[in-house]
Amino acid sequence: MRRTRRSSPHLRIVTVLGLLATLLLPLGLTVAPRATAAPAADPVRVMPLGDSITGSPGCWRAVLWNRLVTSGYTDLDFVGTLPTQGCGQAHDGDNEGHGGELVTNVADQNLLPGRLAATRPDIVVMHFGTNDVWSSIAPDRILAAYTKLVTQMRASDPDMRILVAQLIPMNPSSCAACAQRVVEFNARIPAWARATSTDCSPVTVVDQWTGFSTAGDTYDGVHPNASGDDKIAARWYPALAAVLDAGVPQDPGDPGDPGEEPGACTARFRAVSSWQGGYQGEVTVTNTSASAASGWTATVVPAAGARLAQVWNGTHTTAADGTATVTNAAWNGALAPGASATFGFVATAPATAGAPAATVTCTAKTPAA
């Protein structure tokens, strides 16, 4: 496990003793230091991910960076394909906050894998979806995009730590409905995170909405001013510090204990047919790791109050909130790299439910290195 190092007075002692030894060597005297500095670990790489609230200029990142450094978290590297965009204070400004971007477009166009490959983050700090909410995109579709991005993050690093914000309030003059849309979308995030989180790659929800005022903390009803930047950084700080204190694995794919461990996979939902009061769905699980999988588990979170009633080509359990966990059958668990397995199900749904939709995620069992 890798942890950030807090700066230590022992390093300063070693530096002074080393200088003293250099001065005394011509006199035939030597000084042996009492301590030796440990080899520097690679810094923990943190990607701030989102839209203009994160990147244009996204000055909460500067506030957060300086608070972390002041608190002793010295082995940090904020990463992203975009450079610093102002803010008027020294900080590590690399970020992945693209102004105007929709999270649904990033998912649909597969823009994230290239950005991950270029920056190799250990932790992703994500405030993303404001433009989607403004565009009146359905929460189910936004959450499906979240799920796809998380899957791509785990393909980059199976142990990715992911912090996801409940969005700051929004009340632009041109969108009277936006304020309530944010409330409704934020209400869905905790259940999505519980269904998506894994032991190896936990998803932590950070409440950026509570206590944030569009009147006092933004300059246009959407983008934070200096007061808003301080509030956003203050909410990110304890969640990120907790992850840093717990430590992150040294590298993606570090050798672990013998046996089997979760591997990378993707899950895709498809509605086969529907009727009033229910529908037939299908989920395809694909092994995206470089190793063969000996089994898989999929999580299905049906939208609009639907519940899985029958499953074939897998076995399932359903939680009280309707979340279903499906494990492979005896004959379809083994998947070569790139191979897929499909299971089907029938779901019951309220008569008022709209088109069938579900958020799906998966893990695969692969041999440990």
UniProtKB/TrEMBL annotation:
Keywords: Carbohydrate metabolism, Polysaccharide degradation, Signal
Gene Ontology terms describing biological process: polysaccharide catabolic process
Domain CBM2: 258-365
Superkingdom of source: Bacteria
Pfam families tied to this protein: CBM_2 (PF00553), Lipase_GDSL_2 (PF13472)
Molecular functions per Gene Ontology: hydrolase activity, hydrolyzing O-glycosyl compounds; phosphatidylcholine lysophospholipase activity; polysaccharide binding
Designated name of the protein: Lysophospholipase L1-like esterase
